[in-house]
């Protein structure tokens, strides 16, 4: 997608949609939002929609960092205690490793 060809109102509308879509447990949309609109929000000359665009980009980055922290914490805890949790961990696992825990 070429953001250079879009009007500023459409850029703001698209950025807002990706920001709100991230709340549907889709943090990848926040990543896309930050990557696509960072230059537009922080490096372009000032225009009227830019203030809201900056807000959405900042909030998307914060939400993305939050999800990265939560998922990293969960993965670390699960990997560390998987063998101790027994059957419960087996039900949570997609693949069950073979061998002695």
TrEMBL record:
One of its GO terms (biological process) is Notch receptor processing. It comes from the Eukaryota. Its main location: Golgi. GO terms for cellular component: gamma-secretase complex; Golgi cisterna membrane. The chain crosses the membrane at residues 20-39, 60-81. Keywords: Membrane, Notch signaling pathway, Transmembrane, Transmembrane helix. It is a multi-pass membrane protein. It is found in: Golgi apparatus, Golgi stack membrane. InterPro entries: Gamma_Secretase_Asp_P_PEN2 (IPR019379). Belongs to the PEN-2 family. PANTHER family: GAMMA-SECRETASE SUBUNIT PEN-2. This is Gamma-secretase subunit PEN-2. It comes from Acipenser oxyrinchus oxyrinchus. The gene is psenen.
């Amino acid at each position: 997608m070429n953001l250079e060809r879009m009007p500023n109102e459409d850029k703001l509308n698209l950025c807002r949609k990706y920001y709100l879509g991230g709340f549907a447990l889709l943090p990848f949309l926040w990543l896309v939002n930050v990557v696509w609109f960072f230059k537009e929000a922080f490096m372009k000359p000032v225009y009227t929609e830019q203030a809201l665009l900056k807000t959405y980009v900042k909030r998307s980055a914060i939400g993305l960092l939050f999800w990265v922290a939560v998922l990293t914490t969960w993965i670390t805890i699960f990997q560390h205690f998987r063998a101790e949790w027994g059957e419960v961990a087996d039900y949570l696992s997609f693949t069950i490793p073979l061998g002695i825990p």
